[in-house]
């Protein structure tokens, strides 16, 4: 399917502005490898303009235009944004499918979630009003204390390409709900719908400068945003390697960061499961989003007594996955995002074979697709824990399988990783599920399922998967400064010093 990609500029202070250096980045359709448009490429000077606009919006009218308004006032904008995105859903779905290569049906769910997330944080903004002047009980009657929750200030938001508009919204919605102003830097590999979001902001009358959107390369736009002295906080989702650089740069100014980074998540399947139900969840947990998901349960640990039969079921399920142009009806696996990502994944598969692993399914380009960055869903067996493909994040449709003999061994293998984003456990024994859940060193555990994600529940990891939590009531806390206010309510002198 072909249709024109809107040609946008940078969205700064409520206006579309050409990048100062007038550079643009080509948009490559990953399903066809064709150039279908371009996006503006911001640099440090454009970042300066966007941060200045955000700071001006934060302080305008002593904050009464945005930062110091009621949560209910900001909620009206978030609800209007949710309604406008729903109204233009078809437009967003088509653009994101072409830009990212994700199956159309997946993108449709993502855009629905953009509206749901905006609605949810509208409610959190309203709830914020009831939490203001929250009383703090003190041991001395002479003093009275309460807490104010105020916006942390101008925030820099850096979002990834695998859920382009949705993961941007995970940051935008709570930041705006809290009263912050923001500069969003989406990934240069998928920025189209984020830029289109600027038009939504104008259509709902969002005050100029409250949200600014800069597409561009990481070193040219992302790095200056992170290090900018007028940016009060950074929220970043991306690779662990880049997250370390973000944290190091922010540390120079003691700037708070929220990091949602990579993963190598385990999925543990015990012997007492319905094998077909567990098999479908296992492939969904790894091959959803074309395998490009930080929480992918890509390390399958299966009890040795059912391993052979379970792998056989996995292969049969996997062979039925429809791999096609993402616009085709029933597509369940599209191309990966770019040639660079394609080459990286294929190298992981090749290295695994050279290290002695067995490719039980997939591992190649689909024969019927000569163009596009397509990789068959791949199942790798005969794994050792030292193998690169077992230890490193592949970020593609590759599922690695290893057996275990006991609950303790399963937990030890699951936790034997530098990552700690998510995990899944499958068993009909719910007491066992509870024991394993408590023992897993991760930020999220799925029991008898994999990958359900709701904006109502906290999201984030431990270890090299990052820190801080997005979503839920915890998500808005990232963007608030908690201020203690304590008053002396007595008419008596303090009496510590002798009066003159």
Automatic annotation (TrEMBL):
Gene3D superfamilies xrefs: Aldehyde Dehydrogenase, Chain A, domain 1, Aldehyde Dehydrogenase, Chain A, domain 2
SUPFAM superfamilies: ALDH-like
InterPro entries the record matches: Ald_DH/histidinol_DH, Ald_DH_C, Ald_DH_CS_CYS, Ald_DH_CS_GLU, Ald_DH_N, Aldehyde_DH_dom, Aldehyde_DH_NAD(P)
PROSITE patterns cross-referenced by the UniProt entry: ALDEHYDE_DEHYDR_CYS, ALDEHYDE_DEHYDR_GLU
Pathway note: Amine and polyamine biosynthesis; betaine biosynthesis via choline pathway; betaine from betaine aldehyde: step 1/1
One Gene Ontology MF term: aminobutyraldehyde dehydrogenase (NAD+) activity
Pfam families named in the record: Aldedh
Residues in Aldehyde dehydrogenase domain copies: 16-485
This protein's UniProt keywords: NAD, Oxidoreductase
Active site: 260, 294
GO biological process, one term: cellular detoxification of aldehyde
Family the entry assigns: Belongs to the aldehyde dehydrogenase family.
Name listed for the protein in its UniProt record: Aldehyde dehydrogenase
Organism: Halostachys caspica
